[in-house]
Automatic annotation (TrEMBL):
Domain of life: Eukaryota
GO BP: any one term: phospholipase C-activating G protein-coupled receptor signaling pathway
Record GO cellular component, one term: plasma membrane
Keyword set, alphabetical order: Cell membrane, Disulfide bond, G-protein coupled receptor, Glycoprotein, Membrane, Receptor, Transducer, Transmembrane, Transmembrane helix
Record protein name field: Chemokine-like receptor 1
Similarity section: Belongs to the G-protein coupled receptor 1 family. Belongs to the chemokine-like receptor (CMKLR) family.
Membrane topology: Multi-pass membrane protein
Annotated GO MF terms: complement receptor activity; N-formyl peptide receptor activity
Cellular localisation: Cell membrane
Annotated InterPro entries: Formyl_rcpt-rel, GPCR_Rhodpsn, GPCR_Rhodpsn_7TM
Length: 288
C-alpha cells in the first residue's frame, strides 16, 4: 500500500512540473500569433485550459488529505469538470475546423478569422462552465475520501445521472462528432479529388490529440461507473480511480508534446519573433 501511495505522489509531482513548464511554453509561442491566425486561437485556448487544470492539481490532492478544506475541494472539482468538458468541445471544434479547411477552402479564406474562433471559444467556455458548475461536485463523491464522511450524503439518483451525462456529453457524443469530420478528411485525402487535397496531408495533430484525450479520460469514466455500481467500497476501485484521475492530468502533459512534434504550424510560431512582419495567407493556414 505504501508503494502505491509513493508512486501516486511521484506521478502527481511529475505531472505538475511537466504540465506547468510545457503548457507555459506553448502559451508563450502561440500567444504572439493569436491575433493573426485562427489555429493559434484553438491551440492557445487548449494550452490555457491545460495550464489551469495542472496548476490546481495540488489543491485537489491536498484537499483529499485535509478534509476541512471545503473551498479547495469545491474549486478543484469545478476546474476539473470544466477542463473535461472544454477539452472535449474544443477537440470537436478543431476537427470541424480542419474539415472545413479541406472541404470549403474558399469559405475558410473569407470567414475563418481569429475573431470568429475567439467567439466560438467563449461560447464553448460558457457551455463548459455551465456543466461544470452543475456536476463539479461529482468528483468529490468519486475521488475523495470525504465520500466516507458522515456529513457527506449524496443523492444516489443524482450521482448516477451526473455520471451518465458526463460520459455522454464529455466523452461519447464528442467522440462521435469528431470521428465524422476526421473520417471525411482522411477519405478526401486518399481520393485526391483536387490539387488542394493532394498538396495537403491529413492533419497529423488530430491523430495525436484525439486518441490521447479519449484514451486518458476513458479510465476515469470506466471507474466512475464501477464506483456507482459497486455495493461496497473496494480498495482496488479506490486505487484504480485515483490513478485514473492522475491519468487525466497526464493528458495535459502530453498535449504540448503533440503540438511541438506533430503540428507544422508551430515551426512558424517559434519564428514569429524573428520576423514580426510576417503575414498569413491561405497557403499557410491550409498547411496547418
Amino acid at each position: 500500500m505504501l508503494f502505491f501511495l509513493v508512486l501516486f505522489v511521484v506521478m502527481c509531482a511529475m505531472a505538475f512540473l511537466a504540465g506547468v513548464l510545457s503548457n507555459g511554453y506553448v502559451l508563450f509561442i502561440t500567444g504572439c500569433r493569436v491575433e493573426r491566425m485562427a489555429s493559434a486561437v484553438w491551440f492557445w485556448n487548449r494550452a490555457m485550459t491545460d495550464f489551469i487544470f495542472i496548476v490546481f492539481l495540488p489543491f485537489r490532492y491536498i484537499s483529499i488529505f485535509i478534509l476541512d478544506l471545503d473551498w479547495a475541494k469545491s474549486l478543484s472539482n469545478t476546474v476539473s469538470s470544466f477542463h473535461m468538458f472544454s477539452s472535449a468541445f474544443l477537440l470537436t471544434a478543431l476537427s470541424v475546423d480542419r474539415c472545413i479547411l479541406v472541404a470549403r477552402p474558399e469559405w475558410a479564406w473569407n470567414h475563418r478569422t481569429p475573431q470568429l474562433a475567439f467567439l466560438m471559444v467563449l461560447g464553448m467556455g460558457a457551455l463548459s462552465l455551465g456543466f461544470s458548475l452543475r456536476y463539479g461536485d461529482l468528483w468529490e463523491f468519486l475521488f475523495s475520501r470525504s465520500r466516507t464522511s458522515m456529513n457527506f450524503h449524496p443523492d444516489e439518483g443524482r450521482v448516477k445521472a451526473a455520471v451518465t451525462i458526463q460520459f455522454l456529453v464529455g466523452f461519447l457524443i464528442p467522440l462521435a462528432l469528431i470521428l465524422i469530420p476526421t473520417f471525411y478528411i482522411v477519405l478526401a485525402a486518399k481520393m485526391r479529388r483536387n490539387r488542394l487535397i493532394q498538396s495537403t496531408k491529413p492533419p497529423k495533430i488530430l491523430f495525436g490529440l484525439i486518441p490521447a484525450f479519449f484514451l486518458c479520460w476513458l479510465p476515469y469514466h470506466v471507474f466512475s461507473f464501477l464506483l456507482i455500481l459497486a455495493k461496497h467500497r473496494l480498495l482496488i476501485l479506490d486505487m484504480g480511480s485515483a490513478f485514473a484521475c492522475v491519468l487525466t492530468y497526464v493528458n495535459s502533459c502530453l498535449n504540448p508534446v503533440i503540438y511541438l512534434t506533430m503540428e507544422e504550424g508551430f515551426l512558424r510560431y517559434r519564428q514569429c519573433g524573428r520576423n514580426s512582419q510576417t503575414t498569413d495567407n491561405l497557403g499557410q493556414e491550409l498547411a496547418e
